[in-house]
Amino acid sequence: MLNLNAAAHRRPGRLRAIGILVVILVVAGCGASATTAPAASTAPASAGPSPAGSRLSSPAVVTIISPTQNQVVTGSTLHIVIGLQNATIVPATTTNVTPTTGHVHLYVDNVLVSMNYGLTQDLPVHPGTYVLKAEFVAADHVPFDPRVWSDQVFFTVH
């Protein structure tokens, strides 16, 4: 399980290394949930600029439904439910980027911890207080411009 809180206060450099390792593992296992992971195709880091010279913008609105703001969670697993309006999750990485199709990236304490092809996710947690946010990104996993973020949700694990 990830101990997201304790390491942050003791060894900031080590947390950065752990965060990089998490990103590498997440990219390698990019999937819908902790139990199912569709095969990811190889895609370039960016689909390139739009005619205006920047990334596409998206009408999407992403929200965190659960946990709720300041919720106290018990146990070692956090069940996350994401809301998405004006867009659709697509099941595979592609360079065919449109403003209304993509994936959700989850961040805990500003560290990318999950790249989802769905709107639910279970994450292992340890006691502590955390901040969670979600981002809707294009089908190539690159952010839109402007970025599509949820509001931050603070939660505590007991």
Description:
The chain is mostly beta strands and 158 residues long. It has a single domain (6-38, 58-157), classed as Immunoglobulins (Immunoglobulin-like). It is built from two helices and ten strands. The chain has helices at residues 6-10, 12-28, and strands at 61-66, 71-73, 77-85, 88-89, 101-108, 111-116, 120-124, 128-138, 143-149, 153-157. Strands 2, 4, 5, 6, 8, 9 and 10 form a seven-stranded mixed sheet that branches. A hairpin with a 2-residue loop joins strand 5 (101-108) and strand 6 (111-116). The longest helix is centred in the N-terminal third of the chain and has 17 residues, at 12-28. Mean pLDDT is 77; it is low at 5-52.
Q: Kindly provide the name of the CATH class.
A: Mainly Beta
Mean pLDDT, all residues: 77
What is the number of domains? 1
**CATH H-level name... which superfamily?**
Immunoglobulins
> Over the alpha carbons, how many angstroms does the gyration radius reach?
16 Å
Give the SSE string: HHEEEEEEEEEE
Low-confidence stretches: 5-52
Reported for the largest beta sheet, the result is: 7 strands, mixed
